[in-house]
Amino acid sequence: MIHQTLRAGAYRKLPMHTAFWHFAMACFLGTFITDLTYWKTAEMTWANFSAWLLAAGLLLGVVAALVGLIDWLVGRLVGMHRPTLVFLLGNVIVLALSFLNSLVHSRDAWTSVVPIGIGLSAVVAVLILVTSLVARMSAHARIGGELA
Amino acid sequence: MIARNEIFEGPIRLRTTLLCTCTIILSACSNDDAANGDDVVGPSPKLAEQTQYLVPQMRIAPVVGWKDGETPTVATGLQIKALASGLNHPRSVYTLPNGDVLVVESVAPPQASVTRPKDLIMGLVQSFATGGGGSEASNRITLLRDADGDGIAEVHEVFLDHLNSPFGVALVGGDLYVANTDAIVRYPYKEGDTKITEPGTTLTDLPGGPIDHHWTKSLVASDDGALLYVGIGSNSNITENGIQAEKDRASIWEVDRATGRSRIFADGLRNPNGLSWEPMTKALWTVVNERDELGPNLVPDYMTSVKDGGFYGWPYSYYGQNIDPRVMPQRPDLVAKAISPDYTLGSHVAPLGMVFYTAGNLPASYHGGAFVGEHGSWNRKQFNGYKVAFIPFKDGHPDGMPQDVVTGFLDAKEQARGRPVGLAVDQKGGLLIADDVGNKVWRVSAKL
Predict the structure, then answer these.
(1) What are phi and psi of A18, to 5 degrees?
(2) pTM of the full predicted structure?
(3) Are the beta carbons of A106 and B236 separated by less than 8 Å?
(4) Distance (Å) from the C-alpha of residue B143 to the closest C-alpha of chain A?
(5) B329: preceding bond cis by omega (within 30 degrees)
(6) Span B2-446: which CATH code?
(7) Does residue A40 form part of some domain?
(8) Closest CA to B54 of B119, B118, B150
(9) Residue B376 near residue B412 (C-beta atoms within 8 A)
(10) Measuring CA to CA, which residue among A56, A57, A58, A46 is closest to residue A109?
(11) Which residues pair with B446 in a beta bridge?
């Protein structure tokens, strides 16, 4: 098993910000689902869920970004080769689009979601999937490096 | 309200931060502000295009109050004096047959629970903008009496206390009706009374909380006194609290005075206030606060005659068949029959009071027309309203552009010294103005 063979100090070199970022991404993915539900039902409750999920996601995302900055400063972003850079850039775009989306979601009733809000939620969901796959590739590369 | 303060004490710093953020973004995307000036008024307006913001325009006038000796400015041939000062958030005025004046001092009902992040921000903005009443308890009616006729009331009596966000008052014979935010309550009144101690009798319940977005219930009795008409504002800007919350709202109810039975007289009126009878045609008129966040010049607030069974658009459309894209599902059947209102007062001027003038004191040019109390805008870069306007009428219909009659509620730095709300005409023909953040009742009369 790979993790059993890692040297004891290796975990300390893994970035911390991902712990927060995972929850932020869960919120943004959730927004897409509640947006879909609002689109189908026109029940305001679902649009309200979306607005809260966006707010929570942004809050966690900003915390993750700050922690990520610390990660970078203390040298925890090891192996900063290309996939990781794509991952970081993708996340910044996810955050920026979600901020825009939270403004759209602050409108009243239908147009707070349809069409621009749900469109942004969908784009963000796709971006999250792509960046997560990239992150997985990068993790593989890094763990491979540690094993060497 | 105590409850509101408790709710908002905690997150106030957060809200301030959010508000500041909004202001920064607001000023960053303010290239459309030049358009604020091209507002529409009058009988057949050309409406502006819809805008949907990322951050809606918001601008509120900080309240500074009136310094000693300061008064609003009046049109030529008129003078103004404070009939009473030191009131607590006076929202409407009503003249009794013996010349006594009732002042309704009210506090907005407690806010509904926060359902969106936006509510945190808007709660703060609204509390600045509407002056929702201080922490001091009022929710009472004060009686003013000016026995010596010098235009300043010597008698201030608490006439009725412990009401529930009252607004409208109507006297029919010996029955005094008070429209609380959740019920019309009847009290016995004898001419000359300065206090009512008897408990009231509820004539009918009205839509109140827990969500009570537009809470002012305007009230007027029919000429024969058999019927009461009461304005019931919508429970949201544009159905964002769910269409269920709008049941029986955004309408004018007709209430049978003998039985309390009610029906919806007219519908689709977002926030109808200042219910009055046009003296020539005897038609019911109202001023209406239209929807926000479609643009600085959209949707203009209006005054209109109200037809029995009429539908005036809200929430589905405005000014006839202009569809509001924010409402889903739409109702093309209702939109098809939506009536376009008679007269545009201006965008976001927030008319909350109206009175037709038929008395003899003011110059003859005011005879037969309507005064409108414009509380003033909050979601527009350039302030609009904050004045009492006069709309001339001819043969029972508006005739000509609105005229500024009482201005100066904003000072030179655009801070609010006061904000006009409800209007009435007193026994001697003076125009009375309730000023809710100036905490005064003003009296306008002909210059001697």
Answers:
(1) -65, -30
(2) 0.90
(3) no
(4) 41
(5) yes
(6) 2.120.10.30
(7) yes
(8) B118
(9) no
(10) A46
(11) B78
- Dist. CA B182–CA B167, nearest whole Å: 11
For chain B, what is the radius of gyration of the CA atoms?
A: 21
In A, which residues are within 8 Å of B115 by CB distance? 48
Q: Is A9 inside any structural domain?
A: no
- A106 and B118 within 8 Å at the Cβ level: the answer is yes
CA A92 to chain centre: 9
Predicted-complex ipTM score? 0.86
Residues in chain A with CB shorter than 8 Å from the CB of B241 are 44
Question: Any idea which of B26-30, B100-104, B364-368 has the lowest mean pLDDT?
Answer: B26-30
Q: Alpha-carbon distance A127 to A94, whole Å?
A: 7
The token pair that represents B123 in the structure block: 């709660």
- Structural domain harbouring A79: 15-147
Tens of pLDDT, residue by residue over A82-120, are 667 888 889 999 999 999 999 999 999 999 999 999 999
pLDDT band for position A61 (50/70/90)? very high
* Residue A51 included in any domain: yes
Residue-wise DSSP of B273-331: EEEEE-TTT--EEEEE----SS-TT-SEEEEEE--TT-B--TTTEETTTEE-TT-SS--
- In chain B, where are the structural domains located? 2-446
Q: What is the DSSP string of A61-98?
A: HHHHHHHHHHHHHTT-S-S--HHHHHHHHHHHHHHHHH
Q: Between chains, do B240 and A42 touch, taking CB under 8 Å as contact?
A: no
Do β-strands B183-188 and B317-318 pair in parallel, antiparallel, or remain unpaired? unpaired
Compute the count of residue pairs across chains A and B with CB atoms less than 8 Å apart. Answer: 54
* CA angle (B353 as vertex; B347, B357 as ends), nearest 5: 115
Which residues of chain B does A114 touch, with a Cβ-Cβ cutoff of 8 Å?
Answer: 328
Closest CA to B91 of B356, B440, B348: B440
Number of domains within chain A: 1
Instruction: Identify whether A8 is part of a domain.
Output: no
DSSP conformation letters of A96-121: HHHHHHHHHTTS-GGGGTTTHHHHHH
B115 interfaces chain A, CB cutoff of 8 Å:
yes
